[in-house]
Amino acid sequence: MLFVLATLKPEWLGGRGDGRAMLPLPTLTSAPAPAPAASGALPGPGTGYGLAARRAAPAVVSIVASKQVAQNPHANDPAFRFFFGDRGPQAQAPTQTGLGSGVIVSPEGYLLTNHHVVAGADEIEVRLTDGRQSVARVIGTDPETDLAVLKIDLSGLPVVSFGDVRALQVGDIVLAIGNPFNVGQTVTAGIVSALGRTRLGLSTYENFIQTDAAINPGNSGGALVDTQGHLVGINTAIFSRTGGSLGIGFAIPVDTARQVLEALVRDGEVARGWLGVEQRDLTAEFVESFKLPVTQGALITGVLQGGPASAGGLKPGDVVLRIGDTPVANTTDLLSAVAALKPKSTAAIQVQRGAQTLTVSVTVGQRPKPEQR
């Protein structure tokens, strides 16, 4: 009964939250817990990968993002037209078109895709597998995770269900669904090659699923699903020397995507904690030079004057060991732990300052929006 009500009459199940919501929260579907499989069982006809593809593929869409290219200010100059051709005084600026993919995650028409797919676009067109097309509007973007939320106004939309990324293991079979090279929707299969990939330089907050399922240009923003067709990641990048797939692709975990989706729909932005420090990994040379009793942590190399860390007493040379109950072994841990803090909350930060271990109390700030690049 709850499922029927949530699908057909979601407004009967409650209000709009705390009143701060810019838009109604999307109706999201989570996957049921999978039944235990028989040892050594292999997928049979009509099940396995075909079942997963039939469940997830209708909710994966193609995205065409277009923008007008700035016209040369000298285009109407007679001398310019003499050397570069006469395009006429009313010539229109050329249009750039980018291709990508997206995933419908709620019956209200909310889609997840990559920020880089829609960044700077003047118009975004979404094409469904059933032949329908719709112009999408941007609800919000989060460049620091490379995610964006779009919305289309169509009825009877197919929706993907969210999987449990915590149950995902290296070696599990996954499918990548998208529109590579604009050839049409394509499903490729592979395994999870690694989990928790960081330091790739793709975004500020990295925790990627690595897969060898073929991902190519145009797959960005598409779905990475398990063998039950449940969404476990948003395909975002490939490692390639040629522009084609070399069997190293990266996807944003679905739990991160869901958090960003809910924040953008509710608040229009993703609010993250911020300390105002520069950091780097603790090296063996630094430990030996300053004779520190610790070997892991994030070294503070700079503190913004007047920032939260400065006001709380953090200093360059401090090694952050723990934020609240979260241990910090490197800069990736520090970024994630600070981002999870609520702005204006108070955090207890344990640091190593020379031979002394101490705890400082810092009032957390809100991370400034990244500069457009």
Q: Could you explain how this protein is built, in words?
A:
The chain is of the alpha+beta class and 373 residues long. The protein folds into two domains: 47-67 and 95-269, Thrombin, subunit H (Beta Barrel), CATH 2.40.10; 273-366, Roll (Pdz3 Domain), CATH 2.30.42. It has eight helices and 20 strands. It has helices at residues 2-8, 48-56, 78-84, 115-118, 254-267, 284-290, 308-312, 331-339, and strands at 60-68, 95-104, 110-113, 123-127, 133-142, 147-151, 173-178, 186-197, 208-211, 223-225, 231-238, 249-253, 273-274, 277-281, 298-303, 319-323, 326-327, 346-353, 356-363, 365-366. The protein starts with a helix and ends in a 7-residue tail after the last strand.
Provide the fold topology.
Blueprint: H1 2-8, H2 48-56, E1 60-68, H3 78-84, E2 95-104, E3 110-113, H4 115-118, E4 123-127, E5 133-142, E6 147-151, E7 173-178, E8 186-197, E9 208-211, E10 223-225, E11 231-238, E12 249-253, H5 254-267, E13 273-274, E14 277-281, H6 284-290, E15 298-303, H7 308-312, E16 319-323, E17 326-327, H8 331-339, E18 346-353, E19 356-363, E20 365-366
Antiparallel strand pairs: 1-2, 1-4, 2-3, 3-6, 4-5, 5-6, 7-8, 7-10, 8-9, 9-12, 10-11, 11-12, 13-20, 14-15, 15-16, 16-17, 16-18, 18-19
